[in-house]
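Hey, I'm writing a tutorial for new members on how sequence and structure tokens pair up, and I'd like a real worked example in the thread rather than a made-up one. If someone can provide the structure for the chain below, I'll link this post from the tutorial.
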Amino acid sequence: MKTLQKSIAITAAVVGLGLTTVGFASPWGGHGRMGGGDCPMMGHGRMGGGDREQRQAMMQQHHAERMELLEARLKLKPEQQATWKAFTTAQEAHHVTMMQMRAEMRDQETTAMAHFEEKAQAMEQNLTSMKAMIKAASDLYATLDPQQKQVMDKFFTEQPMRRMMRGAGAPPAKS
């Protein structure tokens, strides 16, 4: 039993040290709130500050790069290109819808009740947009062979943030 306790303590220390090292080695130095520093995505240490257009452009660029990476990993066949294009178009439309909703909500001076109504409307728009994206993803998924499905499953379920949210000791998502 003592060996198990020692192993757990050592593992916790190694993980803690590793996370600390990653935090300080990050390009933004791991200081202040939300990682702080001059992270352009976080707006100079606070969520929502900084240049919104720059953050949006960076997020769009990041998404485009991720989709290029997924496309390369899937090794799509010519007959799968049409459903791939429909999938990426639906994703882009969803992201545009989300950015527009955020901008509209941010720019409105409102009452508490109007705020709640706007939130509900945004959720309904998000749901509609997500359903369109799910349909396009389903159409693409149906054209994939078993290996490609496994690649797509891992790509969307084994993201570092998702693993972090499940906890360091949690098993990876099932394929």
